Amino acid sequence: MLLQFDYVKPKSIAETIGLLVQHGSSSAIKAGGTDLIVWMKKHLIKPEIVIDITGIAELSGVSFYPHKGLRIGANATINQVLANREVKRSFPAIYEACLSHSDRLIRNKATFVGNVTGGVPSADLVPSLCCYDAVVHIAGPDGERDVPILEFITGPRRTVLSKEELVTHIYVPHIEAQAAGCYVKLARRNALDLAQASVACVVVDKQNGKDFRISCGAVAPKPIRALEAEKYLKGTKTLDETAIRNAADKVTESVNPITDVRATREYRLDMIRELTIKALATCIEGLRGGRMS
Amino acid sequence: MKQTVTNSGVGKWVTRMYDAEKAAGTLKFVDDLEFGPSLLYAKAVRSAVPHGEIISIDKAEALKVSGVKEVIVGEDFPYRFGLYLKDRSPMAIKKVRYIGEPVALVVAESEEAAEEGALKVSVKYKELEAVFDPVKAATDNSVLVHPELGSYEHVDFITPQPGTNIANWFRVRRGDIDKAFKEADYIFEEAVTYPQIAHGFLEPHCCVCVQDPVSQEITIWTAGQSVFTTRDIIADALGLPLSKIRVIAPPIGGGFGGKAGMTIEALCLAAATHPNLKGRPIKLFISREEVMLSSWVRQGYVARIRMAVNKEGKILGIKNTFYFDTGISAEYGANPVRSAGYTSTGCYYIPNVWTDSYAVYTNKPFGGAYRGFGMPEFMSALEMAMDIVAHKMGMDPVEFRLKNLLKPGLPTCTGMPMHNHALETIVKKVAEGISINKEEPAKRNGWKRGKGIALAIKAPAMPADAASSATVEILGDGSVKVLAASMDMGQGVYTSFAQIASEELGIPIEKIKCYYPDTQSHPYDWQTVASRSCWSMGMALKLACEDARNQLIQLYSEYWQCDPSEITIEHGVVKCRKLGKAEPIDTKIQNGFKMPDGKYKGGPIIGRGHFVPPDVIYPDIETGQSPKSVVHFTVGAVGVDLEVDPHTGEIVVNKVVCGYDLGKAISPLNVRGQIEGGTVQGISAGIMEGMYYDDKGLLLTPSFTDYKIATIKDIPDEIQYFWEETPEEISPYGNRGVGEHSMISPAPAIGNALFNALKVRIHSYPFTRERVYKAIKQFDEKGNVDFWEYPFAREQDYKQAIKSWD
Predict the structure, then answer these.
(1) Cα–Cα distance list, B187 to B307, B308, B347 (Å)
(2) Do B654 and B604 sit in the same domain of this protein?
(3) Any A CB within 8 A of B722 CB
(4) Count of domains in chain B?
(5) Which of A157, A220, B230, B787 is most solvent-facing, going by the fewest CB within 10 Å?
(6) Residue A133: inside a domain
(7) B611, B631, B657 — which closes off a domain?
(8) A46 to chain B: nearest residue by CA?
(9) Does the reported pTM lie above 0.95?
(10) How many CB pairs below 8 Å do chains A and B form together?
(11) pLDDT tens, position by position, B632-674
């Protein structure tokens, strides 16, 4: 049950920042509301004022700029991201992550950026963003700043965002080479569930060799890239089963899951290995099949 | 000769009633009803400790919240309620027994104020040692959940054991069990566990109660399955006459047993009967989290089954010990324990039986009625044990089952002769349907495929005197008003009733209306539970229709001056072919017929019918024996073809084939719905559902974030269903219950198919991905075929685990 709160719907970013400055930690920003309202109902947060940013035109939309990248506005719903053709073509790991998120109805309300700003370790969209080196664009009373996704989330439900700041959009740079990507997720059932463990993988076919990017979800307090595994793969000539297994072991070594009601630490460790093998095989197959970027 | 003709009678595929209103959203549920500005809202303050004495409850801060009218505590409403055993007070009095138990009720002018007030009530406890494991609770009396058990009132057929945590002990003693084990060639002992699970109905509990300050009459609007039982339990506890309590049940969004008996109504009444609040309607709507915590769930279950078998594969004896984890209340949960007990040889003839079935109190949310009522738990154990024994003896699991089948005429474990049924045919059809002995490759790369079968059986589990009555009024335009107080909670019982009325009255179904129950208008019915409505209420309704039809025919025969046998009712038109008469039913039926002598005769036609099972005798307390312990059994079988990913433990059910002998399908569309729905619910329970607690008794799965139920993406590609119709002797149309049965055996069929696929036997339900993976890993690393995770030890595992990054 919701407790009493005030509600305001600003028309601009500047007005929003003004409200944030005025109300600070007693305020909460609402876009899709699919996390916020649930957390408020459970009294996990008790804002005195809810600032609804859905009326701000500048924060809407998903746009792709050739040779530059993808801009996802703070109000863009996950379904809007899925509907953008360029996402499926150029950012398959993001596309698959979006599809694995909740269900069609919730995706129609939930925003892409909200999944990131929530800062939960199991957030489906974060590992793929890590693989594409996405950048979080922030506006605040002192101006604007860009923070790489890996630095944006600092711990479970914690981000670098101050109480006076607002994420305006996320920017995903375009990869100027052939690439393949995927997001594989394990949960307790096939839809509407949080990841027990997940792996995003992007393989870029550069002239000087393949570039591997691997990130995991729900197995560390903040976003990670499995750098040891990436380095190992880059230095490996033949990508056979053994190499993939070795890489999967290295990914497993780079994570640090906990036990909760969704899964034990031990299962998550084993599943990260399995999911990595699956993700790498999918990407390598994708590149062979000429899945273009 | 049959005197009615209709196209929408018994056995016809017709359109379901009330579906259009549900789809359009115009049907009003309790939460949709308007009560005006006098309505107050109640919100419970809940215990934060699993077991403790209440030192103090500080209401001062809550009462300061604007809009808060009253804070009520347990002592203000010191009544104990219960269907079979009065062990439950709506709020804790002096002592709390589980995390989530209501300790106070805040009543306010708005929902928000009630919520805020509830957050501001502060309660101090002196914590006591708690017990969560039912086997520990049953075998070691160091913690007593109900030290006062000896003083609680209960019905005769429940046997609580004061001074222990055993709320009910059901026994079967048949034949010579020691001799059976002495003479056996093989002895097998198996153990199986199942955690508590929740119904997951869509509509949370909601009720509105008001007491008239002058007449003291109470009116209750509730999302309930059982208006009369709710009324009777409340009247009994409060000492009020039945006529002073009116219970109205608008349409409900699913029940599955979770809204049977009396649930949250007493808590709401604590406010409605309060001297300062009397006269104002009070609304209590509980959230999903509160539903999970404080309305009953399916009991946790631990079974130990020993079987004595001879070389030929005949089971000579069975020794069962069942521990049902009933949480802090067995008021309803005492009865599934009986149900499992008096059916404790399943679908098999076993001459020597020794069963101890216990309801055990623990410091957890409480167990009660849930579709299947003790049988999904027990059959999950027995059908797995049957499979294990067959495999260990090198026998075909289907052959082994058929060899020991409870054939018609053979005695059940209570000594009642089994009635006619087609189980053998069903088992063979199911086995053939999944080609059980044909090894087929998995459809998915790297996966393993397996097939398994499990049998199902269940009797309506109810008191011997569970009665029904109905009235049928033929209205002035030939339409029909049916008052039969069963609850249509989605199972489609009003469609079935309309079909019965159509069949008996010769009136098309479009002209027949069944009304949602209200104790003020409807005649008595015990409860909508036990798969009993089409059978028990079916008997009453058929009699009521016959009564109305006879009245109508009698009047027409005098009106037309013909013999009653010459009159027919065809599609709503009354005919006498001999005289060439035909007219649609009109106002005469309500205002009276002008007879040839010029005088009026008749008046509104109201048919009435009532029924109580005529020949059931309670099983003997010491031995469980009775010439007829239950009204009938519905039997069936489920076959599962599945595959499993050994890398993750994920299960995909390719195909389910199931069949039940239901005597007669009154409403085939609804039978299909019940079979498919129950099958999906059974699969869901089998592969993902479970309520888990931490080492302090805190529920870790309080909402759908972590209590997972199968979605459409988790259900089988194909559910093949069929039914047999071996008629039941005492029954309106030969029909037996079928509502619950489809949920009983999908889970054990999956367990048996998993063994077939993996050669690993998982003894603990559900077969979650993690558990299946662990079982495979244990087999690969240590070669252990049997995998067992004691659910009540998980709390301890959880205590040791790394749970946080901090």
Answers:
(1) 6, 5, 20
(2) no
(3) no
(4) 3
(5) A157
(6) yes
(7) B611
(8) B116
(9) yes
(10) 74
(11) 999 999 999 999 999 999 999 999 999 999 999 999 999 999 9
